[in-house]
Amino acid sequence: MVVGNDEKLVWDDQGKPVLSPAGRDSVLIVDLADPEMPNIIANLPIKNSIVGPPANVAISPDGAIALVADSVDVTKEGETLKQVLDNKIHVIDLNATPSRLVTSLTVGKQPSGLDISAKGDQALVANRGDGTVSLLSIRGTQVTMTDTVALGSPADQVAAVAFTPDGRRALVVKFASHKVSVIEIQDGKLAYNKLDLPTGPWPYNVAVAPSGQIALTADNGNAGASDGSVDMVSVVDLEATPPRIVDRVVVGDGPEGLAISPTGNLAATAILSGGNSAKTAYFYNPAGTVTILKIDGKQVVRLKDIEVGSLPEPVCFTPDGRYLYVGNYLDQDFSILKVEGTEVTATGKRFKVPGHPASARMSAR
């Protein structure tokens, strides 16, 4: 598992952002040989950000490299700290002992959600700050940008992207336009034919089922913040011509983290539950939840909500689908849940990390 810790942003008791200077972020490489006792095997000083969906990191299917999207920096202007957009993808060699940063490349403004193809030879990144998606070629630890396609303007805020299993298409969420777009991929080129599907308000994350039959979007509901109202996960039928939204599943207040189990029978979404809101707000909760969804073909139903830590962001299933990890940003740890069939239960165990887990992804092995 790769974890991105952001040490530049927290919130005060009034729910207002508090910035800190850059320089203390880290990326963790975590060994899960014993899934209930994770072991940090590398702690790399690599900048990353919570400003974006918690899919700003990715691991290749063979476990050889990890990518980190560095979306937002913090700089000092006079006596004031301010956020500025960055444009870097960092490449980590996971086969090195210890794992190490090998290179960084420039992509579009505010690179956010990342995904790596099932073959492991390509990656996509949503450049939120300029309304584009970039295609990256992967050859060992050599990662190069081969194409970029515009999906609109920066105002659309493309936030996250997910390949279909065959690598020929991808889904891209337009956060501020409340849509998910379909793009085509062929011969190292991207094509956007203006196929946009209406999600719920503020879609922030997207995942495609291993079957390739459906995709899910986590529709945040309030521009990245809780507001006390329920929100939804939209279901996209990818086998229809053209693809279309076929269902919406009601979830809690502020879904962000989203993952589908490698077994294809479950999905999980992390619910913010007002964790970074003003503590006087009626919808503030010191603990968030993770909502478990059952997938049966194209049918998606809500099974249960499980309490986790404060401001849950990333969610990850292990490659065998037997465990689920939920990163609690403000508690600086992960909740460890056990999966048996479609039954998910909290183990009561927490995995402490040296920072605020803003993003996390699992390898395929």
Q: Which key features would you list for this structure?
A:
Host-pathogen_enzymatic-act, 4-stranded antiparallel sheet, Haem_d1_sf, Methylamine Dehydrogenase, Chain H, mainly beta, 30 strands, YncE family protein, about 375 residues, WD40/YVTN_repeat-like_dom_sf
- Given the helix and strand composition, which structural class is it? mainly beta
Strand content: over 45%
Number of helices: 0
Find the CATH topology.
Answer: Methylamine Dehydrogenase, Chain H
The coarse silhouette is globular
Strand segment count: 30
Rg over CA atoms, rounded to whole Å, is 18 Å
Helices and strands, in order, run as EEEEEEEEEEEEEEEEEEEEEEEEEEEEEE
CATH class: Mainly Beta
Which percent bin holds the helix content? under 10%
Q: What's the architecture in CATH terms?
A: 7 Propeller
The main sheet orders its strands as 5-4-1-30
How many independent structural domains?
1
Q: Report the average pLDDT across residues.
A: 98
CATH homologous superfamily heading: YVTN repeat-like/Quinoprotein amine dehydrogenase
Low-confidence stretches: none
Distance N terminus to C terminus?
10 Å
For the biggest sheet, the summary is: 4 strands, antiparallel
Task: Give a written overview of the molecule.
By secondary structure, this protein is mainly beta. It has one domain: Methylamine Dehydrogenase, Chain H (7 Propeller), CATH 2.130.10. It has no helices and 30 strands. It has strands spanning about 1-5, 10, 15-20, 25-30, 40-45, 55-60, 65-75, 80-95, 100-105, 110-115, 120-125, 130-140, 140-150, 160-165, 170-175, 180-185, 190-200, 205-210, 215-220, 230-235, 245-250, 255-260, 265-270, 290-295, 300-305, 310-315, 325-330, 335-340, 345-350, 355-360. A four-stranded antiparallel beta sheet has the order 5-4-1-30, with no helix packed on it. Strands 6-7-8-9 form a four-stranded antiparallel beta sheet, with no helix packed on it. It is globular and about 45 Å long. The termini are close together. This is YncE family protein.
